[in-house]
Amino acid sequence: METVVLVIGANGQLGSVLTESLIQKFGKNNVIASDLNPRKEYEGIFEVIDATNIDRIQEVVTQYKVTQIYHLAAILSAKGEETPLRTWDINMQTLFNVLEVSRKNTIEKVFYPSSIAVFGEGAPLDKTPNNAYLDPATVYGISKASGENWAQYYFMRYGLDVRSIRYPGVIGYQSLPGGGTTDYAVDIYHKAVLEEKFNCFLKEDAMLPMIFMEDAIRATIELMDAPKEDIKVRTSYNIAGISFSPAEVVAEIRTLYPEFEVIYTPDFRQEIASRWPNSIDDSTACKDWGWKPEFDLKSITTTMIQKLKEKYRTTSKTSIL
Ligand code: SER
Questions:
Q1: What is the pTM of this model?
Q2: What Cα–Cα distance (Å) separates residue 99 from each residue in 155, 230, 307?
Q3: Which of 175, 181, 220, 239 to mutate to test the pocket of ligand 1 (most atoms within 8 A of CB)?
């Protein structure tokens, strides 16, 4: 059977880049991108889907004979705190819809992203293990911790092959994040390249796990490609990239932009960050499906600056930000 992939949340930070990689892998006619709104200048197959509407997901699955679903739509940590109950409803309803459609249509594989936001005060801050106690303090984290367990439930109860990764903060030049606590680590590079002052909403020593987009995408594809019997964790896998604080990324940026100015005005997102791990133990993912990150802070910084410079040279600021 030919693989046909449906990406839900394809306009997002990760979704937009992952869609391109899936097209490379499966071909343009076998990847259906979908989101709440059409994507500008997108040349592949695109369907508008509100994933809270199960009938609409079913319609697209039937129309294209979808065999895999990547469910990337969610309201993230910082944004989620504005409307906790709505965030819970959206994050859970969309997941239930995907799981139900997948089970009923014998979808071959489902990808469900989780996050470092599942960890809270009950987990060690350093080298947080895969099986640490989960007591998340944000509604986003609560929805992801629950979602992981639902993923495992559908695997155990119905044999649905759901696979999941707990992403650290994702840093990429291709797209902008929205509504997260780790978003500063993308914004900071844009400000550096624009030679503008950066106002950081976290404290300078707020150490958080991060991962470069290329690594995050490769992890996703490798996990989804791994033989089924190698996937021993059916909640979600920790993956690590690197860990750094705002002060460390500033120091690295200053090797290229010595004048780069930063002020720190921590807000409620600092509270969220303070309960998340400093670093992640990803040895389970390494052992089960061979995960290994490639990018460190230096290579991330060099690539971000170079790519963003090119982008701002050829595109207007307003269409990027
Ligand atoms: N990057 C996300 C956030 O900050 C974490 O998964 O909410």
A1: 0.96
A2: 10, 21, 37
A3: 181
